[in-house]
Design brief:
The chain is an alpha/beta fold and 110 residues long. It has helices at residues 2-11, 22-31, 50-60, 74-78, 96-107, and strands spanning 38-42, 65-70, 88-91. β2, α4 (74-78) and β3 form a beta-alpha-beta unit.
């Protein structure tokens, strides 16, 4: 799913970074010298879940926006803190069109 998401986003013109787990994602956020406009993450990941990952990244990069995906229902995920980080929820499975639309929405000025 991670590679497919990256490939779709790159195909439509987004520049991406890819991490295999939450710890790696936080390290990328810490060391990447360019902007980090959006993090797209699964809620359930090895080593550090998506909620804790975005919490750590938010401390490093407070202007970053988030899309959290999960096969769990939105209400179940919201209980784990999605609303606290103003993340957009993307329920699996989803289509290319839905992924691209969600990313576009997440990047819109507030």
């Amino acid at each position: 799913m991670r590679r497919w998401t990256r490939e779709v986003l790159e195909h439509v013109g987004y520049r991406t970074l890819e991490a295999s787990n939450g710890v790696e994602a936080v390290e990328l956020a810490r060391t990447h010298e360019g902007p980090l406009d959006l993090v797209v993450s699964d809620v359930v990941m090895p080593e550090l879940d998506g909620i804790d990952t975005i919490a750590a990244i938010a401390e490093l990069r407070p202007d970053t926006r988030y899309v959290l995906m999960s096969g769990y229902t939105e209400s179940g995920v919201a209980e784990r803190g999605v609303e606290r980080h103003r993340a957009i929820f993307l329920e699996k499975p989803f289509s290319v069109r839905t992924l691209c639309g969600t990313v576009r929405d997440a990047l819109q000025p507030v």
